[in-house]
Specification:
The complex is a heterotetramer, with one copy of chain A (about 750 residues), two copies of chain B (about 90 residues) and one copy of chain C (about 240 residues). Chain B has about 90 residues and is of the alpha+beta class. Chain B is about 30% helix and about 35% strand. Chain B has a single domain, classed as Phosphoribosylformylglycinamidine synthase subunit PurS (Mth169, Chain: A, 2-Layer Sandwich), CATH 3.30.1280. A three-stranded antiparallel sheet of chain B has the order 2-1-3. Chain B is elongated and about 50 Å long. In chain C, the strands form two sheets. In chain C, strands 2-1-3-4-11-10-9-6-7 form a nine-stranded mixed sheet, sandwiched between helices. Chain C has a two-stranded antiparallel sheet with strand order 5-8. Classes of the chains: A alpha+beta (about 750), B alpha+beta (about 90), C alpha/beta (about 240). Chains in contact: A-B, A-C, A-D, B-C, B-D, C-D. The structure holds adenosine-5'-diphosphate and magnesium ion.
């Protein structure tokens, strides 16, 4: 075996993604040269993907404490207490690079990975949300990617049996060569039954469970830490293939095994597979571990120790059982027709000892593997930013016809209905989904209680591009506001940070600023970050000579895109908010401040092809008050609809209120007639975007009560009109500025994205 | 000109379908089954002057659309006597 | 009435059916493992939705050969009722307990959406409480729900009133636009010769509570219970 | 003993997938494509004393599980030289 292994040299280490300094450090930690297998362990565990080398110092800034927090960052997923003895476990992860290489399997295995993160904690997955970013859907290559990604998510989630209840899809040219596939999963568990990924108890057996190991995705973790270039093709590892059926068996078997009480610790084999589990689990437990690789169930012949440790075959778990209860565990897995094989033991030392057919192939202190170097590189704002921000959108011409502008916006792929995607997803299995995709947040009941949870994901790359700190704070606010509009009190945040190469100062600056913005918003809204994921190196290296307009280094990074997932709780599931107008004759109010801007707006992009300007101001205290006012109104049953003002501004919010209920209302939209305040240019008033704003509708009979509640809440708000009719009509300065049939708006909205996919 | 394309997963790629079918057959008592792999069959009728030209066209179709060469290998065979099943 | 909900590897509507039976219609219910053959203590067996064995070969093919499905023949012969929804319908067809087969949706995509079903046969235990021509609303969630049977089978099916539900408009029109998967003649559900075995692609268990958007699915259970409740509480509407 | 099963939709059954692939190829400029049908390929390695016995076992597998004869026809072919791709 050893004879065929490459000789360990600095060059080899470099080839595996380690730097010369890192290689020296390994030699120092070991007091000798590493073996080939050991070098493989280090290269995987010290990759950006596993070790967060460039981001760790920044992530420590995120607030992670709250009274209801049960598990913060550091485990497979975070958990919060939702009351009545229940907890929700949740996390978001990216699978951007694999999805670009093989969209169907890449997205499918992304779903598989996040599901495992949830059920290793002992929670049954109850909801999936997918947050996707692509280039222009009119482009054939992009269309192929969208098709592959959506059907991959659909296949895996549906077959496994977890409903996909929400998400978003947005489009911008910067994602054309590097789409984003972020998937969030939420699981439900008794608060006192959460399982952790710790190897404890010297002498306890270590079991390998699930699918057999093949040569899939070896070096996936290192690949996720590299930019796409011409050589990506050559470096392509064997693509991982998803097996949702086995995953479903694994879910049932793991939950059943945990219920016996014989499971001490468990972790899913994700990035860097066995290598990651066998070092992280003992590191968390303050123990060591010994494993014999020849015991690992194998799908292919002649796999080397290196390959066995680094394989990223899917649907596998490493489980530490209670000594003496091995047969109990084996029986559970046998019932579900799964391999469960003892491959080692927890040891008292602090070393990972790996043997292959009895021969020691690696012997490393676990701490050396998990304590990767961290970097605090210097960073600073890009030179081009000031110029981008300086453009004043109001120097661009006004639209001739505001009604037409609204119809165009409603038909822009980013705003248009995403039903084409979510009708391919099972949205209801589990019979908990009270609010299906199509409202600000999904709502799921918690059976056996009166409670429900609300979930939403959000993140605007355009806003973060123009102002990383405020844009990221706004993403937190918007996701939380969506949850509040549904009546949910936000309890926790998970984030997925999608950025370019952190080795470039301006990208690292975007990242650092975005983290700061998320931290500020979370503190103000009193929600902890329970976990997340960082995806760097989302770049396409262009053909030599070509440079993007805003970057001199020859590469094009995606728009910096933190995606924020928020989970909140409703005490009373029967008091929930949805975004669409319910009936004619109800009063419409606009809650929140007037501060909006066309900078970075969907309007500026769709009608003027520009990504420029400054963002609206964000007052986190006002945001907090608006959200709590909305929750109070929804919770008291005072409002019949609540809809967050997001992309497209007030006009689009009203239009969505008019058309998005058609499905729930039995096929008909509900028009409205409103009057907007003069004072700004009309396009800014109608289409400007800004935080902290919500449109609600109120039955006339509840008007006084509602007004009293608003007065108590001390937030800016006003009545702006009434629902009803078959048209959307806007008055400004004494004249009608928009008068469009709801039908037309609905048609534009329904076909805006779908027509590209037909 | 009638040709047949056989598409198989590349060696090393997990054959999720094949593994499940194999388990199912074993469960039905086929203890003599050693291995089973599932692939795709595509039968094509193409207008071409020579068998060589037909094969070349089908090869192009495979590369452009029919096979996902990240995951799959393919082989092209001529169908001699047999007729394509009528639609 | 004693219900059993079958669990195959890969089943996922089992818990949803269990919940509706125990919490909504409040009848005794237990899970039945796919290897079990003993159904003696049950009145109605439910084959729920999901992806049994991943549906990797053909939907329902492997489960259709399982011990529990083999045992269904005798169970039905002894007067038991069988309700197969979604994957359960596919399994019943693959097992030959119902005629026909379910193919990949004509749109070649999975579909999860609300559908309207025209009730055609009210002489089955599952539809006895309904009116012919009534329209029920129930969601579907499947990738392989296109019902197919060859011409003689279809003729025989029609001749014996075997078609129970067809996809229709809200008004009850059986038109192409209302057909979500390309099923022949918009067929959504069929019964066997005795009427004791019903298969349908839609999910009655997802339409059994107001909070979930409707209760039309409950009508099937209520009809079924009506056939057995002896105190006369069951009334044909 | 290695055999190959080719499973095709019966004549007369609309091959929706084949039609979709055919349309897509036409869209890519394959105007010379006359017809295309999609089926399944199953490669089986079975323990058997004689080729005839092997074929009979595989035929049984087809009837019991692999093909649904309401929809599908199948043919069984021997694989001579070729090896089954390793899993
Ligand atoms: N990829 C997707 N998967 C599931 N649901 C989606 C997806 N994209 C959008 N949706 C749903 O469509 C609705 C509208 O989405 P979006 O316009 O992004 O809303 P918002 O601006 O309130 O976040 C939401 O209910 C969302 O959950
Ligand atoms: Mg929103």
């Amino acid at each position: 075996m050893a004879g065929t292994e490459p000789k360990v040299t600095l060059d080899l280490a470099r080839g595996l993604g380690l730097t010369a300094d890192e290689y020296d450090r390994i030699i120092q930690r070991l007091g000798r040269e590493p073996s080939y297998t050991e070098l493989g362990l280090f290269s995987a565990l010290w990759s950006e993907h596993c070790a967060y080398k460039h981001s760790r110092v920044f992530l420590s800034r995120l607030p992670t404490r709250a009274p209801h927090l049960l598990q913060g960052p550091g485990e497979n997923a975070g958990a919060v207490d939702i009351g009545d003895g229940w907890a929700v476990v949740f996390k978001m992860e990216s699978h951007n690079h694999p999805s670009f290489i093989e969209p169907f399997q890449g997205a499918a295995t992304g779903v598989g990975g996040i599901l495992r993160d949830i059920f290793t904690m002992g929670a049954r997955p109850i909801a999936i949300l997918d947050s996707l970013r692509f280039g222009d859907p009119a482009d054939a290559k992009t269309k192929h990617l969208i098709n592959g990604v959506v059907s991959g998510i659909s296949w895996y989630g549906n077959c496994f049996g977890c409903p996909t209840v929400g998400g978003e899809i947005a489009f911008a040219p910067e994602y054309a060569g590097n789409p984003l596939v972020n998937v969030m999963c939420v699981g439900l568990v008794r608060a006192d039954r959460i399982h952790l990924a710790r190897a404890e108890g010297v002498g306890n057996p270590v079991f390998y469970v699930g699918n057999k190991t093949g040569r899939d995705g070896i070096h996936g973790a290192t690949m996720a830490s590299a930019t796409f270039d011409d050589e990506a093709e050559a470096k392509r590892p064997t693509v991982q293939v998803g097996d949702p059926f086995t995953e479903k068996l694994l879910l049932e078997a793991c939950l059943e095994a945990m219920a016996t009480g014989a499971v001490v610790g468990i972790q899913d084999m994700g990035a860097a597979g066995l290598a990651c589990c066998t070092s992280e689990m003992p590191a968390r437990g303050g123990t060591g571990m010994e494993v014999e690789l020849s015991a690992v169930p194998q799908r292919e012949e002649g796999m080397t120790p290196y390959e066995l440790l680094l394989s990223e075959s899917q649907e596998r778990m490493l489980l530490v059982g209670a000594k003496g209860r091995e047969d109990e565990l084996r029986r559970v897995f046998a019932k579900w027709e799964l391999d469960a094989v003892k491959i080692g033991e927890v040891t008292g030392g602090a070393d990972l000892v790996v043997r292959h057919r009895g021969e020691e192939v690696a012997h490393v202190p676990v701490e050396a593997l998990t304590d990767a170097p961290t970097y605090e590189k210097s960073y600073g704002p890009p030179a081009w930013l000031a110029e981008r921000q300086a453009l004043e959108p109001l120097c661009l011409p006004e639209p001739d016809d505001y009604g037409e502008a609204l119809v165009r916006l409603m038909g822009s792929p980013t705003i248009a209905s995403k039903e084409w995607a979510y009708r391919q997803y099972d949205q209801q299995v589990g019979t908990n989904t009270l609010v299906l995709p199509g409202s600000d947040a999904a709502v799921l009941r918690i059976k056996g209680t009166r409670r429900a949870i609300a979930i939403s994901t959000d993140g605007s790359g355009r806003q973060v591009f123009l102002d990383p700190r405020r844009g990221a704070a706004m993403a937190v606010c918007e996701a939380a506001r969506n949850v509040s509009c549904a009546g949910g009190r936000p309890l926790g945040v998970t984030d997925c940070m999608n950025f370019g190469s952190p080795e470039r100062p301006e990208i690292l600056w975007q990242f650092a600023e975005a983290i700061e913005g998320i931290a500020e918003a979370c503190r103000a809204l009193e929600v902890p970050v329970v976990g997340g994921n960082v995806s760097f190196y989302n770049e396409t290296v262009q053909a030599k000579g070509a440079t993007s307009p805003w970057d001199s280094s020859g590469g094009t990074a995606i728009l910096p895109t933190p995606i924020i997932g928020v989970v909140g709780v409703l005490e009373d599931a029967s008091r929930l908010g949805t975004q669409w107008f319910k009936a004619a004759g109800q009063r419409i109010a606009l809650l929140g401040p007037d501060g909006v801007s066309l900078g970075g707006s969907e309007y500026l992009w769709t009608l003027h092809d520009r990504l420029a300007g400054r963002l609206a101001p964000l007052d986190l205290e006002v945001e907090r008050r608006v959200q709590s006012a909305v929750r109070a109104a929804v919770g008291a049953g005072l409002v019949t609809a609540a809809h967050d003002c997001a992309e497209g501004g007030l006009a689009v919010t009203l239009a969505e209120g008019a058309v998005t209920g058609a499905r729930a209302n039995g096929g008909v939209g509900v028009g409205c007639e409103v009057t907007v305040e003069p004072g700004r240019r009309l396009d800014e008033t109608l289409f400007g975007e800004g935080p902290s704003r919500v449109v609600v509708t109120v039955e006339p009979a509840r008007q006084r009560e509602f007004e009293a509640l608003m007065a108590e809440s001390a937030i800016p708000w006003r009545w702006i009109g009434t629902t009803g009719g078959e048209r959307l009509i806007v008055h400004a300065s004494g004249r009608v500025v928009v008068d469009v049939a709801v039908d037309r708006i609905e048609h534009a909205w329904r076909s805006g994205f779908e027509r590209h996919m037909a | 000109m009638k040709l047949r394309v056989l598409i198989r997963l590349k060696p090393g790629i997990l054959d999720v379908q094949g593994a499940a079918v194999q388990r199912a057959l074993a469960g039905l008592g086929f203890a003599d089954l050693r291995d089973l792999r599932v692939g795709k069959l595509i039968e094509i009728d193409v207008d071409a002057a020579t068998p060589g030209a037909a094969r070349q066209r089908v090869d192009e179709m495979c590369r452009k659309l029919l096979a996902n060469t990240i995951l799959e290998d393919y082989t092209i065979e001529a169908i001699e006597a047999e007729r394509l099943a009528p639609r | 009435m004693r219900f059993g909900v079958v669990v195959f590897p890969g089943t996922w509507s089992d818990c949803d059916f269990h919940y509706v039976i125990s919490e909504v219609i409040r009848q005794p219910v237990k899970y039945v493992w796919h290897r079990d053959r003993n159904l003696a203590d049950l009145d109605c067996v439910v084959l729920p939705g999901g992806f049994s064995y991943g549906d990797y070969l053909r939907a329902g093919a492997v489960a259709g050969k399982s011990p529990v499905v083999e045992a269904l023949r005798e169970f039905v012969a002894n007067g038991g009722y069988v309700l197969g929804s979604c994957n359960g319908f596919q399994i019943l067809c693959e097992a030959g307990l119902l005629p026909g087969v379910l193919m990949r949706n004509e749109c070649l995509q999975y579909r999860c959406q609300s559908t309207n079903l025209l009730v055609e046969n009210v002489e089955t235990p599952f539809t006895r409480g309904l009116r012919a021509g009534q329209v029920l609303t129930m969601p579907i969630s499947h990738g392989e729900g296109k019902y197919y049977a060859d011409a003689p089978t279809l003729a025989a099916l029609k001749a014996r009133q075997g078609i129970v539900f067809r996809y229709a408009t809200v008004e009850g029109q059986v038109v192409k636009a209302a057909n979500p998967n390309g099923s022949v003649e918009n067929i959504a559900g069929v019964v066997n010769e005795t009427g004791a075995v019903l298969g349908l692609m839609p999910h009655p268990e997802r339409a059994a509570e107001t909070a979930m958007g409707g209760t039309d699915g409950l009508l099937l259970f209520q009809s079924l219970l009506g056939t057995l409740v002896e105190d006369g509480t069951f009334l044909k509407r």
